[in-house]
Structure formats: C-alpha cells, structure tokens
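Q: Convert this sequence to structure tokens.
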Amino acid sequence: MEYDLVALTKALKHTIKGLNQESADSWVPKFQDIYQVGMGTGISAAFLRYLTEATGVNMRELPTKVPNFAQISKDRTEQVYQKLAAKLADHTSQDYEIMGTRLSGQIMGAKGAKTWAEANASTKSNLTVEDLINVYFYGYQYGFQISFWAGLVEYDFAYKDRKLTQKEGADLAQAAAVAATNEQLQTTLESKSALAQVYYYIQNASL
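A:
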C-alpha cells in the first residue's frame, strides 16, 4: 500500500497544532497509543530477524522454508502483542513504568519543563513531528526486544548452531533491539515511502 507523504505530513502537522493547545495529561493516552503501534511493528520485525539470524535462512526465503510461515508469524505477533498490551495496561508493572519514563521525558521536553507538575501547568508547547517519531520508535524498540527474547525462549535459546545461556540471550535481545531500532529509524528518515508509512501509523494511532 502506497501512502501519500504530502497529505500525511499536512494531517500530522494539523494534529500536532491541536495537541500543542492541550495539557500534558491529555497527551499521555495519545502518546501511549503511538508507543503501542510502534511496539506492534517491532514485535513482528523481531520474529523475522530472530529466525533469519538463528537459522541462517534469508528473510525472503522464510515463507518457502517454514511451513505456514505467514500464519505462524501473524499468530505469534498477535499473541506477543496481547501479552505486552496487558502489561502496559497494568499501572503496577515494570513495563508500564518504563513506558511512563520514556513518554514523560518526551512530553516534558516538548513542554520545556523539568518536572511533570511544570509540564502540566505549562501553557506553551513545542511538540514536533520528531517527538512523535521518537515515541513510535521507543515502542518499536520495546516490542522488538521482548519479541526477540520470546523467540529465544520459544526455541530453547538456540542461536546459530549453539545454545545460549539466559544471560547471553537477554544481552543479545537488547543489543539486537537497539541495532534494529537505529537501523529502522535511519531507513525511515532516508526513505519517503518508509516515512509516509510511519506517519500513517502515528496519525492513525487513535489520535
């Protein structure tokens, strides 16, 4: 599906203009939606990355090498997404706390505030497209890391003809998530079609 970058840029700027008139508290659910959209993309990407790196099979060959690959990938992505969405809905979870720290930092920056109280009291905002892209990729990295880890667990920590320890697996999942997020962010910023797709996801994340 082709996305219209010009139209999406205009729509997103209009959305941001409206958000800049709102309080920090009102931004939170909107930012959480964007974070979860990014999370979903990261979950799917991580499963593909894990299988290609662990087995050595080219990503384009997976559908022919792995029986029912498309359905397996779809089902697994949905399963991991539901589990993580439940964790993010639990205000006592570590996952929710991590998301909150990331989002509050981005919001306070856009509000020019050092504390949440200052951000919520502020009548000035300088929210930009870059802020929302950052939120999207915070979610992407989170989803990728947990999904990659889940792949390791699912396949008993098998990776490139060896079995990893849990510590090695955790370190690998984190490193893979950071690398993949940086790579995808760079691709997004350099490709009009990729940027348009991310804009579409952000604009339609329940905003």
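The mean pLDDT is 92.
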